[in-house]
Every structure is written in structure tokens, then in C-alpha cells.
Amino acid sequence: MNNLFEKLKKSIFAKQISYLLIFISFAYIFYLLSINWKKLIYTLPLDKMLASIFLGSIFYGLNTILLAYTWYRLLKVLGEKVDYKTSHYIFGYSQIAKYIPGNVMHYLGRFVLSRNSGMSEKNILTSIFLETLLLAFSALSITFVTVFFFEWNTIFNIIFRKLIIIFFIILFITAIIFLLIFIFKKYRSITKLGYFFKTIYQKYVFRELFYSYLKYFSFFVLNGIFLCFLSKIMWMINLKSNILIFIGAYAASWIIGFVTPGSPGGIGVREALLILILQMYISESQAVTLALVFRIITTLGDILFFFSSSYLNVKYLKIKS
């Protein structure tokens, strides 16, 4: 009983910390908006912004197909006999739920829809676990490489960089530990563990996992490039030499938003970190505008992907009798 009470207290404390982080992020964004609103009004190229939002939403929606296809491949390698249309429908239909507070409802929705379509609960959970792990690995690896290209001009920024590196190292180690726990819980003896590695080697699972990692890696790179391209369209800024910064900024902001409990779709947290990093290269008002416009683009892209998935005539609700 005491252990349960302690766990409950820790859970409540973690939620309070995450809500505080979300509040600080929104407060920071609103503060920047309040001191930059005149610049935003007079310098914002409205026609270019609207065109960028329209084209960007389509681009992001198409880029999300990469995530849906990768999940489909993970299901196939786990032995699920599922066609791509069904997995695409389930992924797209449930993905929109990530904007519900809690940051886990899209996974729950995907689990329910997949189970109703006749998939194995074990394979569904494993595929979601692998997807989460590989997404985190790809974002972390990009952040590790690009963080050293950031311009850290002050003592505060140098300390901030070290804190970021330490934070991502902790995340990386935690992910490895969770993976090992998952494997050893499933295969408790050395014999079973050896059989497990032999089996996945024979089934080319390692190769498929590596390909999945590359696809997730490409997802972050493409979105980072588009973020850089967006600044070029809106303000004609020459940022060819800083394209790695935009890729790294997007990857870092994504992982921070992803691990913040209670932040629906990482809203607020991702924008705050994007602004912090990008204002070292562009003006503060431009960084604020870019972060907010990119949030609109990604949200509309998710909505487009949701509707495109809804139009697929797939009978996924065949429950096994």
C-alpha cells in the first residue's frame, strides 16, 4: 500500500513538473509575441506565409506517409499478415489523437483499431514500442551531431549546450535500458535469449530495423530542410550554411516535446525550444513567426493525412470470431 502511495506521489509530481514546463513554454512564447507583435505585423509577408502554409501542409502530410509505411513494415517483419491500405488507414485515423492531452491517445487508438482488425495484441504493442524507440534514436542521433554546430556565444549558452547533451545522453541510456528490460523479460533464460537473437537474425529483423531507422531519420531531415526552406521563402534569408542547424533544431524540439507528458503533440514546448535555437541565426520576431507557422503547417498536415486515411475504403473492422 505504501509502495502504491509512493508511486502515485511520484506520478503526480512528474505531471506537475511537465505542466510547469508547458506553462513556462507558453508564457515564453506569449512574452515574445507581446514584444514583437509590431514587427510581426509590419514585416510579415502574408501572401508568402499563406502559400507556405498551403504547400507546407501538403508536404508534411506526404512526409507522414513515411511514418505510416515504416509502421507497416514493422508489422510485416513481426509476422502480421496485413495489407498496406489497412495499416495506413489505422495509422492516419488514430494519429490525429496525439493532440489530445496526455500524448498517448494516438497509440491507444491505434492499438484498438489494430486489434479490431484482427492483429495480434503482442505484435501491435511490439511494433509501437519499436516505432517509439527508433523515432527517439533517430531524433537523438541527429541532435547529437548537429548540437556541436550551434553558435554558443555566451557562458549561458555554453552551459545550456552541456545541459542539452547531458539530457540527451540520459534519454539515450534510458532507451537502451528499456530495450534490454523488454528483451530479458520476454526471454528469461540464456538459451531462450540466444534463440531469440538467432531467430531475428535469420528473419532479417536487424536489417529491417536499420531500414526503419533510416526512414525515421529521413523524416526528421526532410522536415528540418523544409523549415530552412520556409525561412528562405518568407524572408529570402540565405541559410545554406545553416541547414544543419534547422535540421538539428527540429529534431531536438521534437524529442523534447515527445518526452514531455501532458503536452498534446508537443504544443508549446517544441515551439519554445525552436525559438531559443533559431533566434541565434535569425531575428527574434522571425524565429517566433517561423515556429508558429511551422506548428500550423504540421497540424494542418496531420489533419490532411487524417482525411486522406478516412477516404480509404478499407474494411479493417473484421473481428475474428
TrEMBL record:
It is found in: Cell membrane. Its EC number is 2.3.2.3. The keyword Acyltransferase does not apply. The keyword Lipid metabolism applies. One of its GO terms (molecular function) is phosphatidylglycerol lysyltransferase activity. InterPro entries: L-PG_synthase/AglD. GO terms for cellular component: plasma membrane. Keywords: Antibiotic resistance, Cell membrane, Lipid metabolism, Membrane, Transferase, Transmembrane, Transmembrane helix. It comes from the Bacteria. One of its GO terms (biological process) is lipid metabolic process. Belongs to the LPG synthase family. This is Phosphatidylglycerol lysyltransferase. It comes from Formimonas warabiya. The lineage of its organism: Bacteria, Bacillati, Bacillota, Clostridia, Eubacteriales. The gene is mprF.
